[in-house]
Amino acid sequence: MDALSGLLSGFEVAFSPSSLFFVLLGVIIGTVIGLIPGLGPVTAIALLLPITYELEPTTSIMMLAGIYYGSMYGGRIPAILMRLPGDASAVVTTFDGYPLARQGRASEALSITAIGSFVGSTVAIIGMTFLAPTLAKISGSVESADMFALASVGLFMVVLLSGGSKAKALIAGAIGIIIASIGLDPISGQSRLTFGSINLLTGIDIVAVTVGLFGIGELLYNAEHGFFSGAKNLKLQPKLPKKADWILTRMAIVRASIVGFFIGILPGGGGTVASVVSYGVQKKLSKHPENFGKGAMDGLAATETADNASSNSAFIPLLTLGVPPNPVLALIFGALLLQNITPGPTLITEHPEIFWGVIASMYLGNILLLILNLPLVGVFVQMLRVRGSIMAPIILLLAICGVYSVRNSLFDVATAIFFGVLGYVLRKANFDMGPMILGFILGPIFESEFRRSLLVSGGDFSVFYQRPLVIIVVLLIVAAIAWQGVGKLRRSQKKLRQQAADPDHTMYIG
To answer: Which of helix, strand or coil describes residue 113?
Structure first.
């Protein structure tokens, strides 16, 4: 069965009334779950997993897939409006989405997010339709050294993404890596930095860290400076982005769609890596990199597009290799096993209605998300009209409930409060918290893949320079450092020329 005939048969399955209903139900549930910081698709799918056993295999997977990519979009709404990321990959969204909201451009930011997500997802689904078998073979050949190289790029981006002091960015990133190392060693299983605490054996939960740093920390900072009085005087009517925004973001969306798609097919790649890499690439290519972190629409478009593209292409290793690349797809993998269906290379031939039905449902779900969310932009934006003194306790309650619901742990709540205080202190000291959370996320990947590579090679470091991807990544990092150096040299020469052209001004400054 070729791709086109398979897709047509998949649409026959997806257009049945029951399939349409469950796809719509999935994207609605996903969007609502995404709106609640800390819950995310893992909690929603885990709760609904027993119900799927009573459904047809195809419709159950369609619904779970809808929850997954629906929550990817829904999680961006509190990240943009309240600087409260719903999951790890939404952290980069806060860098420019939240400043845009405070500038009265929340409507345009949410619209760009919806459209960029739609384009990125569509590109990924089209690529999935025609390239899945071939890309599955390539994805299967990825080794630990390659994943180490990708993690290296992400950690290198930690410094590049910082709009402030590079030294402070390095310090914050290092703190994040140290915090991530708390718990059990991923290779040996030995406890590290637990100080005898049983609660620390399982490590520090990512939701507690992100909600604490970006949610509770922001509330404490606003409490000191006077809560936001509400956007009564700002123009918050629902409206599409301006023509200038379209021109600014169109190439960012195209690039991020491609980057997100290819990172998504790599086991362990995920939306966080795709968001970081795409954001960094766009910042390097932007004509105005100084705007990043202050409300760059192309930066927001790049990270959102890449995240949604990678979320959809992540189904390739699941369906064709039987390798779930992230916790959400691991639960969908479990849902398939409950139906006595094993994902893998034989899924296309043994259960074509599931493989092609799920892909066809993604086309429909993606369109449904756009139709549902664009008209609701005005509803979401009205949240900014509520005074901060009223919104703050609501956000705090949602944050604590969200953190608690992940593992039903009061220790996680205490952890979130601790990181809230830490986030407040770092904010006061003019530290950028982005590098810290990115170090927390990417540090364990960097460490585990590095050590795993050496274990496989018997301690032979040649395993790294024998892999083409590693060599490419090293060359790219060297080129980026050289580019930074050349740019800095040009700026200093320009400054010297300006001083030479205006000696009186130079003397006055001196």
So the answer is: helix
CA distances from 401 to 39, 158, 359 (A): 9, 30, 34
Residues in the chain: 510
- Find the mean pLDDT for residues 461-481: 74
**Maximum alpha-carbon separation in the chain:** 82
Q: Where are the alpha helices (DSSP H) in 181-242?
A: 206-210, 217-225
Instruction: Tell me the per-residue pLDDT of 23-42, one tens digit each, with 9 for 90 and over.
Output: 888 888 888 777 765 556 76
Q: Kind and range of the H or E element at 474?
A: helix 468-501
Backbone φ/ψ region at 386: left (φ over 0), alpha (ψ -120 to 50), beta: beta
The C-alpha atoms of residue 496 and residue 507 are separated, in whole angstroms, by 13
**Mapped to the 3 state alphabet, what secondary structure does 394-457 carry?**
HHHHHHHHHHHHHHCCHHHHHHHHHHHHHHHHHHHCCCCHHHHHHHHHHHHHHHHHHHHHHHHH
What stretch of H or E contains 257? helix 243-264
The amino acid occupying position 158 is: V
Q: Is the pTM of this model over 0.70?
A: no
- Residue 161 · residue 283 · CB < 8 Å: yes
Residue type, 120: G
Kindly report, residue by residue over 123-132, the tens digit of the pLDDT.
888 888 887 7
CA distance 464 to 151: 13
pLDDT digits (tens, 9 = 90+) for 426-459: 888 888 776 787 778 777 877 888 888 888 778 7
Are the C-beta atoms of 304 and 120 separated by less than 8 Å? yes
Task: Using alpha carbons, select from 152, 156, 425, 464 the residue that is nearest to residue 284.
Answer: 156
* Tokens of residue 15, six digits: 């257009």
Helix, coil or strand: residue 192: strand
Going by C-alpha positions, the residue among 157, 125, 179, 145 that lies closest to residue 303 is: 157
3-state helix, strand, coil in the chain (%, to 5): 80, 0, 20
Please name the helix (run of DSSP H) or strand (run of DSSP E) that holds residue 183, with its range, or none.
strand 183-184
For 296-309, what is the HEC assignment?
CHHHHHHHHHHHHH
Compute the chain's Rg from CA coordinates: 23
Angular region, 424: left φ>0, alpha ψ -120 to 50, beta rest: alpha
Q: Are strands 183-184 and 191-192 parallel, antiparallel or unpaired?
A: antiparallel
Chain centroid, CA 321 distance in Å: 23
